[in-house]
């Protein structure tokens, strides 16, 4: 079997996407986005068939003023998704964030610790060890929370540069030891390359056999889709992305947005990999964001001719 056909056979038949534009996309926008607009966009995402939506973050409103209406958005989204198979999720930075999310009816929370100490300090005002101790407290006091650990700066840090693979594995192992079995490896500043993705995933697979793993890849250097392809070849079938290519951490200078969900779904469709998402409805949301949200859209498809009249 040659390398090309061999690689095609190892691609997943379907992938699960988590839409993060209402959180990662909006957190970085200074101008206030009305709560009603946020809710309309969450509704559009829901209608497009996305099964996992990170609708907001329960962080300090002093750190991220744009997320100060988290409870309203979350409660609306939880009611909207009631009796459906859609997961409403939120990012949390600490125990207080977990308490707030749970009180709005959100069970699936993404707790963030950076693999790099300098970024964790800027982002969370804590050392990674302090953030980890808070995670232990959260697991103990709120067993009903379904916690995913988001490992930020897993592929590079805006303050320290390279992040050793061992630092990522050590953090994951500590979390695994307290019962976390869902992880998202985040390229917070979008500097990963496909070979690096392959190397890190190889180490992760060597060390952990029974975890749920997702990737969150920013597109600063234009390699997010290439990195997703590299990850799929390693068996990863869960990705986070943001409509329009929105996103960026306000505490990670110089980072561009995420892989654009509509570009990713278009790529998956053309590769005959199922995402169960309606591309036309996703593009409607991208256009809605373009009209209503003061941000620039970096996704390609929303600006491109789609050549729908042909089958390529
Ligand atoms: N939600 C709302 N308010 C919170 C909070 C939360 N999750 N955590 C802390 N606060 C409030 C406290 O109640 C306190 O309020 P007060 O001044 O009115 O008494 C204030 O924030 C300071 O609390 P403290 O625990 O000392 O937090 P801090 O100032 O050291 O900030 C974080 C730490 C983690 C709360 C803050 O850095 C943060 O929210 N970071 C998130 C950054 C982010 O979203 N990055 C992008 C996504 S990864
Ligand atoms: Zn991000």
UniProtKB/TrEMBL annotation:
Report the residue ranges that make up the Pyruvate carboxyltransferase domain in this protein: 15-283
Q: Does the keyword Lyase apply?
A: yes
Q: Which GO terms describe its molecular function?
A: hydroxymethylglutaryl-CoA lyase activity; metal ion binding
Annotated TM spans: none
Task: Show the InterPro entries listed in the entry.
Answer: Aldolase_TIM, HMGL, PYR_CT
One matching Pfam family is HMGL-like
Q: Which UniProt keywords apply?
A: Lyase, Metal-binding
Q: Which GO terms describe its biological process?
A: ketone body biosynthetic process; L-leucine catabolic process
Question: Which PANTHER family does the UniProt record give?
Answer: HYDROXYMETHYLGLUTARYL-COA LYASE
Family of the protein in this entry: Belongs to the HMG-CoA lyase family.
UniProt name for this protein: Hydroxymethylglutaryl-CoA lyase
Q: Tell me what organism the protein belongs to.
A: Edwardsiella piscicida
């Amino acid at each position: 079997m040659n390398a090309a056909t061999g690689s095609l056979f190892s691609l997943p038949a379907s992938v699960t996407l988590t839409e993060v534009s209402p959180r990662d996309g909006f957190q970085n926008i200074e101008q206030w986005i009305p709560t009603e607009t946020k809710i309309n966009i969450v509704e559009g995402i829901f209608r497009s068939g996305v099964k996992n939506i990170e609708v907001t973050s329960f962080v300090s409103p002093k750190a991220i003023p744009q997320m100060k209406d988290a409870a309203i958005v979350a409660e609306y989204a939880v009611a909207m998704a009631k009796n459906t198979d859609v997961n409403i999720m939120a990012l949390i930075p600490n125990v207080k964030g977990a308490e707030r999310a749970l009180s709005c009816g959100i069970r699936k929370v993404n707790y963030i610790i950076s693999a790099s100490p300098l970024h964790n300090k800027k982002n969370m005002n804590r050392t990674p060890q302090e953030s980890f101790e808070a995670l232990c407290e959260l697991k103990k006091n709120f067993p009903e929370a379904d916690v995913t650990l988001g490992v930020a700066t897993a592929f590079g840090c805006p303050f320290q540069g390279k992040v050793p693979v061992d630092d990522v594995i050590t953090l994951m192992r500590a979390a695994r030891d307290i019962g976390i079995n869902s992880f998202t490896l985040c390229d917070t500043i979008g500097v990963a390359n496909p070979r690096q993705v392959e190397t890190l995933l190889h180490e992760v697979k060597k060390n952990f056999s029974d975890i749920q793993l997702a990737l969150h890849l920013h597109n600063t250097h234009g390699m997010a889709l290439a990195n997703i392809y590299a990850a799929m070849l390693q068996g990863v079938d869960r990705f986070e992305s943001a409509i329009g290519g929105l996103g960026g951490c306000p505490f990670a200078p110089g980072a561009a947005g995420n892989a654009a969900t509509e570009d990713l779904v278009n790529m998956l469709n053309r590769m005959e990999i199922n995402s169960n998402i309606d591309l036309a409805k996703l593009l409607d949301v991208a256009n809605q964001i373009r009209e209503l949200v003061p941000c620039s859209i970096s996704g390609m498809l929303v600006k491109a001719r789609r050549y729908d009249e042909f089958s390529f």
